[in-house]
Amino acid sequence: MSSASVNPCSLRESLRYLNWVYNPFQSLDVAQVYDLLSTRGPTERGLWLNLGYWREAGTLDDACVAMADLLAERVSITGADRVLDVGFGFADQDIRWVQTRAPRAIVGLNITASQVTGARARVANLRLNDRIDLREGSATVMPLPDVTFDVVTALKCAFRFRTCERFLAEAFRVLSPGGRLVVADILPMPTASGWGAYLQQRVSWAMVAGKFPIQKENIYTR
Ligand SMILES: C[S@@+](CC[C@H](N)C(=O)[O-])C[C@H]1O[C@@H](n2cnc3c(N)ncnc32)[C@H](O)[C@@H]1O
Known about the structure:
This protein is of the alpha/beta class. The chain has helices at 8-22, 30-37, 60-74, 92-101, 113-125, 164-174, 195-211; strands spanning 82-86, 105-110, 132-136, 149-155, 175-184.
């Protein structure tokens, strides 16, 4: 590629991305990480940002859909439910749930402004604005009234919240009596036996927890 054809904007973005990945002294807050990852998600269909559920899936796209379906099934989303989805990414799971479960309404809450804008455009393209209401805001200080929802969902995001416990208190506040909560989260595996496996586990956890970043308070055992 000749130097004249390099897009300075994407070059700058690529350098920022490499700096974030490889520079051990570089750490970004949650919204900065997601602004950086932007819409370059690892999936081919949709813009999913989770690691998926792999029991039957053969691709990451299928695994992400399976994960969204598993959450909906575990929390039994029905046509009667008002759902709050926190940390919605680009709203792939909300679009899926509207199409497969037809809840009464979905409100999404996400701290990353660029994702809110992108997700709203996707929802508008599908003419689902009257079913999915996407808002910018934090899962730990929800700009929402008490006793408003039947279901709260958090798909691969609660480990990022400052803190997960504050999110749980907020979820309890906005849920109606008898409301349901479902969370798919990243947790450390039980300690591996053998020095090699133990070391590999500690190093990989430290890298993930340092980059994304995961608060110490959010580390729960299974
Ligand atoms: C790993 S992504 C998961 C996105 C989506 N649920 C999915 O599975 O594709 C984590 C999401 O949580 C959001 N997030 C992180 N901290 C948040 C907070 N305190 N309140 C609301 N959203 C938050 C990020 O902006 C991002 O959209």
